[in-house]
Hints:
Blueprint: H1 3-32, H2 35-51, H3 53-69, H4 74-80, H5 84-99, E1 107-112, E2 118-125, E3 128-133, H6 138-149, E4 153-157, H7 163-179, E5 187-189, H8 196-202, E6 210-214, H9 217-226, E7 239-243, H10 249-261, E8 270-276, H11 277-293, E9 297-300, H12 302-307, E10 312-313, E11 327-333, H13 336-346, E12 351-355, H14 359-368, E13 373-376, E14 396-397, E15 405-406, E16 413-420
Parallel strand pairs: 3-4, 3-6, 4-5, 7-8, 7-12, 8-11, 9-10, 9-11, 12-13
Antiparallel strand pairs: 1-2, 2-16, 14-15
Amino acid sequence: MSANAETMKFDVVQYMSSMGEKAQIAATQMAKAETAEKNAALNAIADELDSAREQLKAENALDLKAGKEKGLDDALLDRLALTDDRIDTMIEGLRQIASLADPIAEISDMSYRPSGIQVGRMRVPLGVVGIIYESRPNVTADAAALCLKSGNATILRGGSEAIHSNQAIASCIRTGLQAAGLPADAVQVIETTDRAAVGALLQMKDAVDVIIPRGGKGLIERVSNESKIPVIKHLDGICHVYIDEFADQQKALDVAFNSKTQRYGTCNTMETLLVCEKTAADILPALASLYNNEGVELRGCNKTRKILTDINPAEAADWDTEYLAPILSIRVVDGLDQAIEHINRHSSQHTESIVTENYTHSRRFLREVDSSSVMVNASTRFADGFEYGLGAEIGISTDKFHARGPVGLEGLTSLKYIVLGDGHIRG
């Protein structure tokens, strides 16, 4: 390693260490912040984003231009874009989070013990949350808002492709925090695009309490493998819709079409469609026509291709692929049992939906499918913190410990036991 390289590496480590120290100090202050202060900050940030709308779009245009020059595909460019609608969604998310109940210091499960003491639990912040994400600049606002309302400090590392957009949003966040009298360092957005910053962040176990990666499989695998800090994550979004033999045809068309085509580049987009063989001949031609109009490439099993004779064959790898593109794999199954077996074998445990009018089938699907979100007669695209009433989400967790599904305010908190006595001693 050259002297310059060593100096650069040392500078990045020092830079990250300084951020960690500032975040720890800010976390202590945020844990004590009153609900009114946090809400004032959230509303002030929303106001700043609204006022800076043209600046945000101008900075985003620089990122989009650079992304096109680097050859980013359409799905990634879509994730990167900051339109007026998406700015409105960021603002609405901030105000919705401000309107939510503050989970911090909430006391639950208080009960008297035989000794006379009272034992319960209090909800508390996690502390310092490190968030590493790609492409979507709206994550900067969403993550900051959730961390603030839950009393945490956060260090955010957005993708290099969104550096201008993220810094513009970060400026609004700092201004809003200062206007509300809260520490500006409660939200720090890493300014360097050096990948060494991610490596340094993952080693900061004395300064950071949890890491949340949000992005592609490569990023999440790297974080999972390198982090010395607990990680809340999901690797893939291989989501399924199953059209049951008792499905209402119009509902099936609507749910299956929306689940795939509403947006292609999201983790809750359907990647595999399962159809009961008793209804396949009736539903698949109509669905294929809808998909063809949207330019969706269809890949099917042998039974599917007997009905849709002009589509491509599905390979074994297709059942385990997150396309993030206008591609859909289709399998005709014997019925509910085979659909559940397929999902539990090939799903990434993200989101699955059944379309059926049969109460027993819907209950079995809800109970037996092992994913973080399981739905009946609804598009998989609803698997989202904003749609779930969480105000926004910091990510989707397919883990089974601490948090599962969209991670909102409660997912960014922990519980501690509290004991109330009146001079009680243990005999």
